[in-house]
Amino acid sequence: MRDLGTMVWKEWAEFVGNRRFVRVFAIAVLIMGLLPNLERHNVARGNPNAAAVLTLLSLGYAVFAAAILVAQTAPDLVLRERSGRTLEYLLATRLPDWAIFGGKITLAAAVGYVSSLVTVAVQLLATNLIGHTGPWTWTYMAVPQGRLLALLLTPVIAAYMATVGTFVALRVGDQRTAYLVTMLSLGLVALPFLLRIVHLHFNMPWLWKAVGVMALVTAAVVTAGFRLFRREMLVLYLQE
Amino acid sequence: MEEPALVFRGLTRGFSGRLAVHGLDLEVPAGVVFGLLGPNGAGKTTTVRMMLGLLPPTAGTVRVFGLDPVRDGERVRAMTGILPDAVGLYDRLTALQNLDLAGRIAGMEGGRRRRAVEAGLRRVELWDRRDDRVSGFSKGMRQKLGIARALLAEPRLLVLDEPTSGLDPVNIVLLRDLLLSLAQEGGRTIFMCTHHLDEAQRMCGLVGIIQAGRLAAVGAPSDLGAGARPAVRIRCTRLDAGVAAALPLPPGAAIVPQPDGEWRVLLERAEDVEEVVAALVAAGAGVRAVVPEQRSLEDVYLSVVGASPHA
Question: What CA–CA distances, in Å, run from B147 to A176, A196, B106, B283?
Fold first, then answer.
């Protein structure tokens, strides 16, 4: 665990020095936090299900904020080692393979989760401070379904995408392509719903089950990641 | 007898049908500065990667202090300090953070780590710049910091790729002295890849020349040239090409004029030089100096890698 801590410390120390990413992070959470509030009037106009649509939209933005930031961060943590020519040193250290991989996906997943929480906070502030009077409104966080999806589904999705993004970066050397391929992996999760193999419900038993299934899929992907990741893959990457 | 630091036996590695390293056989004793010389693409980096367990060999074996890097890669890397060709410092971290990271990776505890980091930064005269980001460092400063990082955990084996690259002459001398003292006093083995033949000649107790993945020559720098045909440089007056061509030289000897006005005489045996001098004096030449020619590492290297040495 100490080796994992060392890797996370290293990734974090580098991460906070990346001013470009801090800007991207701030812009993403602000847009995802403010957009639902700005769209409120368009959605509400003549729509009997306005409240439900707005709730889903807000929640979707929070999940999307996590997704885009993980898809940006996970490949970047690998690609930056290559472009910065630090990969050779990292691989020649005594750090075990699992710690190198674990450090990268832990930070990427944490970035995703934190971004979704900050997005939720911005949404709440925007709802309550812009043109709102009366008592504090918790929007979808007031209902158990909303809390379940915002607090439990987002870290699961972030961990899934962090693992996929890290492996994508082993094969794709370009940041933009790696980002797009990682984002597409989110489409794989949505595929059963789009093909109408699985139908969406918003009752608690169904949502618990859905989050549970997604957590199992993520656990399987992360476990496979730890088993399959070998520093030899990165060395061959250098050799190319 | 002490166990060799490195043993390579028939070490081979191929990539997509091309052999990067082919049947490498080599032993490096412990406590020696070994220089691996060779042109770009000769197989030096692939050899180092197999040595550290980063690439498994296609055939053959390598042992580092008796350990197999394929099975015990983590233990091999734990006893190795490395300075890669690109140095590989984290630009967004400060000099202090870079060394602190190396200490953490090496598993050094807080107090010991802090002392080692400070000593390392002071050793390479970067203590005053400890809180500066590495992105603002010159190539020489990066190289020095990379060396401090490689030495931080006092490894048994140091692997240095072009260690003097980017250093000014004063720092090259300091580094050379440091490495030699590490090898002599600390008993460390230093495995160095370099293109600088002069550096290898001065620093290495043993060198190997690798060409197209094969080890073409190995030995002490002074011994490598010893097997060559003896030659002397003669400075004399009253000798021209016509007289030189008519000299009664011993069997197998040849005399060649040099651009600097001296004459280079190739001999079959070193003692034939007396006969050559006698022939020159008999022909009326005034012999001022006779200097035995040392065949340099550069001559050996150039002849091995296929470039033509000076005549």
Answer: 35, 60, 15, 59
Q: Is the pLDDT confidence value at B214 over 50?
A: yes
Rounded Cα gap, residues A59 and A169, in angstroms: 28
Region of poorest pLDDT, from A56-60, A111-115, A122-126, B172-176: B172-176
State the virtual CA torsion across A188, A191, A193, A198 in degrees, nearest 10.
-90
Asked if the model's pLDDT at residue B307 lies above 70, the reply is no
CATH architecture group of domain B231-292: 2-Layer Sandwich (3.30)
* Contact list, B213 vs chain A (CB under 8 Å): none
A215 or A82, higher pLDDT: A215
Strand partners, B192: B35, B160
Residue A202 has pLDDT above 60, yes or no: yes
User: Does residue A14 sit at the B interface (CB-CB below 8 Å)?
Assistant: yes
User: Residue A94's domain spans which residues?
Assistant: 2-239
In A84-203, alpha helices (H): 87-91, 97-129, 144-148, 154-171, 175-194
pTM equals 0.80
* Chain B contact for A87 (CB, 8 A cutoff): yes
Q: Which CATH superfamily is domain B1-79+156-227+295-311 in?
A: P-loop containing nucleotide triphosphate hydrolases (3.40.50.300)
- pLDDT computed for residue B36 by the predictor: 93
Asked if the C-beta of B101 comes within 8 angstroms of chain A's C-beta atoms, the answer is: yes
pLDDT tens, A136-171?
A: 888 888 888 888 888 999 999 999 999 999 999 888
ipTM of model over 0.85: no
Provide the number of structural domains found in chain A. 1
Question: How many C-beta atoms surround the C-beta of residue B87 within 10 A?
Answer: 25
Highest-confidence range of A152-156, A187-191, B259-263, by mean pLDDT? A152-156
Bridge partner residues of B266 (DSSP): B231, B254
Closest residue in chain A to residue B159, using alpha carbons only: A92
